[in-house]
Write a structure and sequence with these properties.
By secondary structure, this protein is of the alpha/beta class. The chain has two domains: 257 residues, Rossmann fold (3-Layer(aba) Sandwich); 157 residues, 3-Layer(aba) Sandwich (Rossmann fold). Helix content is 22%, strand content 25%. The protein is built from eleven helices and 17 strands. It has a 15-stranded mixed β-sheet. It has a two-stranded antiparallel ribbon with strand order 14-15. A hairpin with a 7-residue loop joins strand 7 and strand 8. Helix 4 runs parallel beside helix 6.
Amino acid sequence: MSENQDISNWIYENRGVSLEALINDFSKVPEPKPFFTPILTRENQTCFGEFIEYKGVKTSYLGAFTKKEEEFLKSIYLQFNGSLEIRTMRFIHTVDEDGLINGADIHLFSGSSKLGTFRVDINPKSNATHILSVQKILNFLIERNIKFDLILLDPPYNSTYDKKYKTHNLNKIDNGSHFLKWLVRRCKKILNPYGLLISKNWRSIKPKYCKFVCGVLSKYGGFRRNTVLEVWQYLPTFDKSQTFTFSIEKHKNANNQENARFLSWITGVKNFWNDKEINFLLKNIDLRFVIDCLIISESKDFKIDHADFDRINVTKASPQEFTQFKLKKDRKTESYAIPEVSTKYDLIIVDECNTIGGNTVLTSALKVLLRQSITKKGFVAMKSYFDPVLEKNTANKKTGETFVSNLKLLDESIVLYEDFEKISSLHIYSNTKIN
């Protein structure tokens, strides 16, 4: 019997059995400790694959995938099934005539999801096949040298669920990035060569020695943070014959998703616009026709480091200065009123910050003012962690007044960062009154 079949037998035999008994007599398994050093950053890694976008998706947390994400994951399982000569992967929940599972896949922090053969979650009300601490089972699997062909990872994104998932306060360090690094490092130790690691998070994982296969950007509307669902293949040695290629076209056709939009992606740097981000801006905007530019940023030192900006009249303002927004305690009046626009710009650049999105009143005002503050041939370039949808009309729920948008979305790119930073989106808008 092959090693993979041995693993499959072990998974099948323990599907309905608590692993506490197995782990209790396995005294060498320690409780995990926090990791404070950066792990698994990408080094000169060539990435392939594409992203698709799902807008206005709905989900219920914890541990749930949207309907479209589930269809995407099932397509991954189905296309990965039998794609590699050394694999024996079968489709989700499928067993052969002998009742044994052919292949090995595991879903960590599975929550209410029913995806995956072997599902682990500490919540007794979840749909997990095993109610157990993920940290403890990872140590157990590593010590027993048990590996899987596919790992689905959907951990809590921040400290909100730290107590619920007993993650030993790891999420409170750097708001979750170190915990995710710890998880990815552990997952790679139980992943077979050429196997798939699938992660859903606010952060891009970019593990070392892995090839990017494909991804999904999910937008939830309002000012909710976008999530990224990434598929990475572990390639300790680059063997083209073992490389898995996912066909997004087959997935779209099989699930009637003709409207799913392909998205470009670039690698950025937090708190700075690098050459790739600037080139994306220049690809869509001819700076020769830009005379006046407004930069909206919380950082007083923020600037676009490009020669063309040396001749442009650049004005800087914080989000609060641009919107003239003050908190209730600092206002002279009870209500906040959107100010009148006195100056218009050929280009407005909005840098990402926690205030934009974090304060809903300020952000709503900013969206209105951006539309009113550009010239007839002006542009808006906005980096944010949510979908700003500046091309849509905005309604004031209190007054019923509708602010008609004059902006058109020209281009959009996902911005991925090194070292497990939260992803961003970069949007370029033009005034629709351009002749």
